[in-house]
Every structure is written in structure tokens, then in C-alpha cells.
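Subject: Gp5/Type VI secretion system Vgr protein OB-fold domain-containing protein

B.,
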Amino acid sequence: MSDGVLEDLVAQLLERLDQRYYGKYRGYVHAVDDPDNLGRIRAIVPRLLGDSTPTGWAMPTAPYAGPDQGFFAVPEPGTGVWMEFEEGDLSKPIYSGAWWGSPGGGDIGGPDSTARAGAPPVRNGSAERTPEVPQHEYPRESATPKVRILKSATGHHIVLDDRQGNERIEIHDRTGNRLILSEEGLDRIMSNERTLNKGALSEQIDGDASLELGGKRTEGIGGSDTRDVDGDCTLTVGGDLTERIAKSAFVRTVDANGTTISVGGPLTESVSGSHTRTVSGAVSDTIVGGYGLTSGQGVSVSAAGPVRIAAGLPDLSLQAFAVDALAGNLSLNTKIGIMQLGGMGATSPMVLGDGLAIHHTMLAQLLKLVYPVLAPAYGPAMDAWAAMTATMDLSYFGFVKRFPVG
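Prediction pasted inline below.
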């Protein structure tokens, strides 16, 4: 090859290289408002275009990309980026990554400037400068080779900690809410939390579960609710308790005044075993309709004070109060005192029974024995009372006279 031809080739090569820009150049992001939303930026490259002329829209070199998929992260204005140009063509800029840096604002515009335009020189109003690399906020520490951090400019970050004994994954937002997954399980630290589940929800807890609420709790269930408890169940309420079923069908209120139960319809109670009720105060039952008491065995009513049963209007049989014994005797006894049966009408021997006849006979004999002096006075009166009506022999126990008046 002659010297002339070689010189021509060198000249062409120099001319070609003179119009091409290969390699990486330091730059910083100037604009990110890509009209096509492709993650493109415009950058200032001081060595090539000066400190005021931006490049055209530079395509990103993404680690992963595809139709509707990939990694999309656009750097903030002022971020230091590595700039390249496709085939060395200055009109086809590419940004292939970013670099750490937080120098002072006076460095902006110098050759290969490392300043990030718009980056704050301090954090939270303190004298602390913006760190070179992203830091973990809880606790505040820089990343190490075994700790991977992805952090945004506002403070949202993801931490992958592979350090032995401290393995975990953390997701943080800039306000301090975070999720921590470690060998101990899942920790959620939230200022407020809301869960929206579009489908079914199933939870299985093999161990114990504990829920502590500092405020009130509201739970709404649109369908039925079933709870099965294999062991004991304890409900402790420090304030009032109100239970309401089917609006007003059943309402139970427990407050400082006691317990109030309101049943809007029929009430049926079924007890398979014994039933014991202890009331420290008075008991009052008001029944608008009838009242029936049926016992398979005996019925015992004991009172420390007087017992009074009052009947209102009689039924069609003119019975206002009836006591019937299907078999055996009917006994009405007083241990100390006098039993009185009276009224505005006559008293039937069927009601009085033999016990009343014996009672009056014994009373008359006792009066004669205790007060023999007065016997001549009230003896004839009693004989006159007995002679007013005919004697009716009811049984072998004695005689009962028919009362003309109560």
C-alpha cells in the first residue's frame, strides 16, 4: 500500500472519528417529562455540550424490558448519570446507569460535573449532608455488601438483608410504615391499615392468637356468623353491654343499673337438668295472659313472710280460685294461729274439707277447757250456730257445717 493511500485512510478515519463520540461521559439529569412516557431523560453533558445545553431524549439501558413488562425507574432531575451515544452519534443519546455523588452546588457546570442539580445539601434541616449511597432508615445505617437496598428519592425503600443471623426482607414507606419478613415471622408496623379482599378469606393459626386494640372496634357481617369453641369461653366487658337480635325480637342491656331483657315475641326455655335461681332482692312477675305451672313431681313454696294469692274476675264456671287434688287429702294447716276462710258468699264443704271441721271442733273444745268460766256464755251461741243448717256427713273424719254467710 502506498503512502498516499495510507494517508487517505487515516484522514477518513480521523474525519469519521471526529464526528463520533464513543465511551461514557458524566452528565446529570435535566428533564424527565418524556411526552411518550418511555422513561427517557434529557441530560446535561458539560464536556460535550456545555453546562446549559441538554441532549435530546436519551433512551434508558434497562436491566429488564419487554412489552408491558420490565424494570421501570426514571432518575430524579439532578441525578448523576452515565451518558453514551449509539454508534457514537451525538443525536442518539443513551443513559446506561447512574453514579453516586452529592457535591456542593458550586461544582455544577464544571467539566465532568458530579453535582446533582436540585439535590438537597442537608437532610431534615440538620447539618447532616445527603449521603452518597442509600441508607437503611430503621436503624439509620448505610448499605453493606450483603445488604441490598432499592430506595426512591422521597425515602421509600426495599431492603434485602443477607447478613448471617439477621436475614430479612423489609419494605418501608417514607413515613415509617413497614413490613418485615424474618425467621421470626411477619411484622407489620403501620400508622393506619385497611384491607380490601375481593374474594374469600381463610386463616389458619396453629398456635395462639392475641389481639389488643387501643381504641374501639366495629365489625360488620353481611351474612351468618358461626363460631365453634372447643374449650372454655370468657367474655369480660368493662362497660355496658347491649345485645340486639332481629331489631327488637331480643334486646339485652347490661349497665350500671343492672340487666334489662326485652323479648319482642314468644320465649321458650328448655333445661335438660336442674335449674336453680337465687335472687337477692324482690321478684315481680307481671303476666297479661294466663299462667300455668306444671310439675312432674311435688311443688313446694316456702316463704319467710306472708303469702297472698289474689284472684280477679271468675271464669264462666264462676271459679275465681280453685285448688284440686286428684287423689288423696287436701291439707290446709296453721301451726300457730287461726285459719280463716270467708267471703261475701257461702263456703262449700267441698272446698273446706274434713280438716276444717276437725279444726273448728278442736278449737271449740280448747276454748271450753281454757275458759270454763265463760263456757256457759259462748257455748250456747256455738250450739245455735251449728243448729242453723243441717249436718252434712262428708267422711269418717268428722262433720262440717254449711256456712250461711262467709
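Residues 169 and 181 are 5 Å apart (CA to CA).

T.
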